[in-house]
Design goal:
Elements: E1 12-20, E2 29-39, E3 52-63, H1 70-87, E4 92-98, H2 103-111, E5 127-135, E6 141-143, E7 146-150, H3 151-163, E8 167-169, H4 176-185, E9 186-190, E10 196-200, H5 209-222, E11 225-226, E12 229-230
Parallel strand pairs: 1-4, 3-8, 4-5, 5-7
Antiparallel strand pairs: 1-2, 2-3, 6-7, 9-10, 11-12
Length: 239
């Protein structure tokens, strides 16, 4: 039976950080997405709960200079996490990072952040690190202490938010125009063998790091969504 909250419950906010580490000439990027869930006042007698409405706000998008070392990227991520812990001490924070191709080394650097291991305190938010390996398959899985996620699922999560008008991109975001350019130029292609591929063709934008972090955050913010509420799915202990 779903949990029935009071219609006067305050909004529930969770922060999702998404990190694309980039490869060779690609730029690493970090996104910060706020998910706010508000209850509607009209009781649903069928679902026996108060329906909820979610809003997703992309509040920050940081692109690192080409050639920035992984330790320097991780150091900046730690700075952002510390600021969030001070500004929003009661909010849960989840960092999803795309470890496709970078192996465990960068994951070990990210795990060094003390926030993942801080003792639970009343009224304090929880922090969780989620390694993600993007695949060309069809099914979500668990492997090597992280999640394997089909690229089509990440793209679909972004499309859903745009189509449902639930996603807001901050007007003063410095990289807003870069993100829009990447989104306009983003394409799905199907090979003769029936395999899908996703990315930019280089005509309007040579990179898709901004789209990657948006998609990763959008997917992470929706993966635990259930009817009449958001219910966290269990994750491996190594997370």
């Amino acid at each position: 039976m779903p949990v029935m909250h009071s219609p006067f419950s305050p909004p529930r906010v969770k922060i999702f950080l998404s990190l694309d580490l980039g490869q060779s000439n690609d730029r690493a990027a970090l996104g910060i997405l706020f998910r706010t869930v508000r209850q509607l006042p009209d009781f649903d007698p069928v679902g026996f709960c108060y329906p909820e409405r979610a809003r997703f706000d992309l509040r920050q998008l940081i692109r690192f200079q080409s050639g920035t070392s992984y330790p320097d990227v991780v150091s900046r991520v730690f700075e952002v996490l510390e600021k969030l812990s001070v500004q929003f001490p009661a909010h849960d924070v989840e960092l999803l990072f795309d470890r496709t191709g970078v192996g465990r080394a960068v994951g070990d650097l990210l795990r060094a952040c003390p926030l993942w291991r801080r003792p639970a305190r009343s009224g304090a938010g929880n922090y969780r690190l989620v390694p993600v390996t993007v695949t060309g398959g069809d099914n979500l899985g668990v492997k090597d202490g992280g999640l394997t996620v089909p690229k089509r699922d990440l793209v679909a999560a972004t499309v859903v938010l745009f189509q449902s008008v639930q996603l807001s991109i901050a007007e003063r975001l410095p990289e807003r125009e870069v993100l829009i350019s990447e989104l306009v130029n983003f394409r799905q292609r199907t090979s003769a063998a029936g395999f899908d591929s996703y990315g930019n063709d280089g005509k309007l934008s040579k990179h898709d790091d901004c789209v990657t972090v948006l998609s990763l955050a959008a997917w992470g913010a929706q993966r635990d969504r259930k009817k009449c509420g958001y219910v966290s799915q269990p994750l491996p202990n190594s997370f």
